[in-house]
Amino acid sequence: MLEMREVSKVYRTETVETHALRGFSLKVDEGEFVAVTGPSGSGKTTFLTIAGLLEDFTRGEYLLDGVNVHGMNDNQRSRLRNEKIGFVFQAFNLIPDLNVVDNVEVPLHYRHMSGGERRKRALAALERVGLSARLKHYPAELSGGQQQRVAIARALAGSPRLLLADEPTGNLDTAMARGVMELIEEIHREGATIIMVTHDPELAARAQRNVHIVDGMATGVSEEPRFHPGLR
Ligand code: ADP
Ligand code: ADP
Question: What are the ABC transporter domain coordinates in residue numbering (predicted)?
Answer without folding.
Answer: 2-232
